[in-house]
Amino acid sequence: MIKSHLCSAALSLAGLVLGVSLMVTAASAKPPKPAPKASSATIAAGKKVYDSNACSACHAVNGAGGTSAPDLSKEGANPKHTEAWFEDAVLHPTKVKPGSKMPPYDGKINAKDIKTLAAYLGSLKGSAKPGGKM
Ligand code: HEC
């Protein structure tokens, strides 16, 4: 009796350990994918806009950049951060955050560039290195 109880306890423990390790393996084996909506070319173009506007003077992405502003490595992971939200956040920061200390980029980034920039920011989900090497 006691023996069979121990045995089933050991079995379920083994099952638990196996299940957890399978889950961990599945999570870490996930291939780095860009956001499904934007093509990798769009994201790469957006990263160029990010670089040429010196956003990294204040913001960091994946460990590279300034520390005076919020880290943007996981910007795209928040479902509220739509393309329109990013456009506002960059062109009119006070629209998304009253009293924002970020300088507005309205008039400095054109209509086409702000779209690719938004796609780039949306692709930042804290996992891979979207848009190529940092
Ligand atoms: C002079 C420093 C500075 C520069 C340059 C700058 N930002 Fe910011 N940014 C900030 C600060 C500070 C905040 C946080 C706003 C606050 O809380 O006052 C912010 C907020 C943001 C946010 C919102 C973050 C969130 O989740 O709330 C985004 C997105 C963003 N910046 C993108 C950019 C992009 C893209 C560029 C380049 C075009 C850029 N920033 C350039 C300082 C800067």
Outline the structure in words.
By secondary structure, the chain is mainly α. The chain has two domains: 1-30; 34-134, Cytochrome c-like domain (Cytochrome Bc1 Complex, Chain D, domain 2), CATH 1.10.760. Helices cover 49% and strands 3% of the residues. It contains five helices and two strands; from the N terminus they run H-H-E-E-H-H-H. The chain has helices at residues 2-28, 40-52, 83-91, 93-96, 111-122, and strands at residues 60-61, 64-65. The chain has a two-stranded antiparallel ribbon. The chain is globular and about 70 Å long. The model has no long low-confidence stretch (mean pLDDT 83). The protein binds heme C. Heme C binds at residues 50, 53-55, 57-59, 68-70, 75, 86, 89-90, 93, 97, 100-103, 105, 117, 121.
Compile the SSE list and pairings.
Layout lengths: L1 H27 L11 H13 L7 E2 L2 E2 L17 H9 L1 H4 L14 H12 L12
Antiparallel strand pairs: 1-2
Helix pairs in contact: 2-5, 3-5
Bound molecules: heme C.
The site of heme C has 23 residues, from α3 and α5.
Tags for this model:
134 residues; mainly alpha; Cytochrome Bc1 Complex, Chain D, domain 2; 2 domains; 49% helix; globular; binds heme C
Give a concise summary:
The chain is mostly helical and about 130 residues long. The chain has helices at about 1-30, 40-50, 85-90, 95, 110-120, and strands at about 60, 65. Helix content is about 50%, strand content about 5%.
The count of DSSP E runs of length 2 or more, i.e. the number of strands, is 2
How would you sum up the global shape? globular
CATH superfamily of the largest domain: Cytochrome c-like domain
CATH architecture of the largest domain: Orthogonal Bundle
Work out the helix count. 5
| Unique ligands | heme C
Topology as a string of helices (H) and strands (E): HHEEHHH
